[in-house]
Amino acid sequence: MRKEYASELTKDFLIKAGVVAVDLENCRVFGEQSEFIPVINKQDYLMISLYDLDENGNRIKIPIKRKFKGCKKPTNTYIYKNRIVSLNRLLWAWKYGSVPAGYVIDHINNKHTELEDYKLDNLQCITPAENLSKERPESTTMCRPAYGVSKEVYEQRLEYYLAEYEKAKKEHNAKAAHRLRSNIAAQKARIRYILKYGELN
After folding, report:
1. For 51-61, b where at least 16 C-beta lie within 10 A, e where not — what string?
2. Around Cβ 8, how many Cβ atoms within 10 Å?
3. Which of 17, 94, 114, 158 could connect to 51 by a Cys-Cys bridge, CB 3.0–4.6 Å?
4. Distance CA 173, CA 8 (A)
């Protein structure tokens, strides 16, 4: 399973990675010993840390040396490697069996900071292209056009970013692709603003 944007995520993976039960109504995830507590990443998405699996579906062990109290020499032991999974993808995969490769789980209300935003009736499985073209209020993107900049300038920027995005996808550069998706969404938002309200002079 590829560790990249829009990779496949299955319920079988979640079970092997330590998920025992999911409360879909309250967006809570339970492991073998306790509940998984979501953390917020830099993009303000709720994320959950699970065990990572190798190609055979086994948990990946990382050897380490640990010194225990009362022992003179370090002891050879291991820890399990973790994998970060976004809560919206986890909930969708648990309910419907999988998130197919090449699809993203989008928040219909364009919000993703509260548990309420992760309920299944606010989620939809769409392609990254559909996610980019989705209409968003300008207040959520905070992408008003600059004074004196024409629509043609933003259309040229959009064309450039779309070309760079295709290159990043072919090169499997997930980090660059994620940054370019944000730039593409910003240019589209500015173009929509100009079409609706006119250019700022």
Report:
1. bbbeeeeeeee
2. 14
3. 17
4. 17
Q: Which residue would you say has higher pLDDT here, 61 or 137?
A: 61
How far is 185 from 137, CA to CA, in rounded Å? 12
Residue pLDDT, tens place only, 137-186 = 554 445 678 888 889 999 999 999 999 999 988 888 887 888 888 888 88
DSSP code, position 122: G
Q: Which residues contact 88 (CB under 8 A, 6 or more apart)?
A: 45, 46, 105, 107, 112, 118, 123
SS3 call for 140: helix
Digit-coded pLDDT (tens) for 18-52: 999 999 999 999 998 899 999 998 778 899 999 99
Beta pairing partners, 22: 29
Q: Is residue 114 over pLDDT 50? A: yes
Helix (H) and strand (E) counts for the chain? Answer: 6, 12
39-40 β-sheet, strand order: 39-40, 46-51, 82-86
Q: Please give the C-alpha separations between residue 28 and each of 40, 129, 139, 194, in angstroms, as whole numbers.
A: 15, 29, 30, 42
Instruction: Check: pTM over 0.70? Answer yes or no.
Output: no
Angle at 10 between CA 90 and CA 61, to 5 degrees: 90
